[in-house]
Design goal:
By secondary structure, the chain is an alpha/beta fold. 20% of the residues lie in helices and 26% in strands.
């Protein structure tokens, strides 16, 4: 291949073992330490503009020692749509330890909607357009029930928190605990 600018792996290293004691790369079954299996003329990174980093909000501190927002844990998930800026969140769902809805809100992304990504998000263009909420409104709603001590659980939670522009340290990200790779 000519003019290759990036050699990488399609999958992530989850540290799983092969048949013996040798660790293998999940996407191609090759031993760790060998050259990548995916070739590209470009390299894609998951970085944010520095100006966006200033827009991150820390989960609020407990108001008192008995702040009810500190109790137990919640599970959280975001649904994403495609906009003129890329993928953006348009729905937050939060449930308690019993599976009861705490928050389920649809909101307008910051940029113009291109595709509601219905197959994966379950959202329609009409649902998004009929909502009067913004990302900022949804984040404020979340902070009404979550403080910095509340444990949040989710799959790929890092992506959700980054998209919501939230800094929160008390998390359990199940994508790090239960990785599934299809080869």
């Amino acid at each position: 291949m000519r003019d290759v600018k990036s050699i990488s792996f399609k999958g992530k290293d989850n540290g799983r073992q092969g048949g013996g004691n040798e660790e293998l790369i999940p996407c191609c079954g090759r031993p760790i330490g060998v050259a990548g299996c995916s070739y590209s003329n470009s390299h894609v990174t998951d970085t944010m503009k520095e100006s966006v980093l200033a827009d991150f909000y820390e989960a609020p501190q407990p108001m008192t020692a008995y702040d009810p927002r500190s109790e137990a844990f919640y599970a959280m998930d975001c649904e994403f749509v495609h906009t003129t800026w890329g993928k953006e969140p348009a729905r937050i769902t939060v449930v308690d330890q019993y599976g009861a809805d705490v928050i389920d809100c649809v909101f307008h992304p910051d940029h113009d909607l291109v595709d509601p990504n219905t197959q994966y998000s379950g959202l329609s263009e009409e649902e998004i357009e009929s909502s009067s909420m913004t990302l900022s409104d949804a984040r404020d709603l979340l902070f009404e029930v979550v403080n910095s001590n509340k444990i949040l659980i989710g799959h790929g939670l890092e992506n959700d928190l980054k998209a919501l522009r939230i800094v929160h340290d008390a998390v359990v990200d199940t994508s790090l605990l239960f990785s599934v790779y299809v080869m």
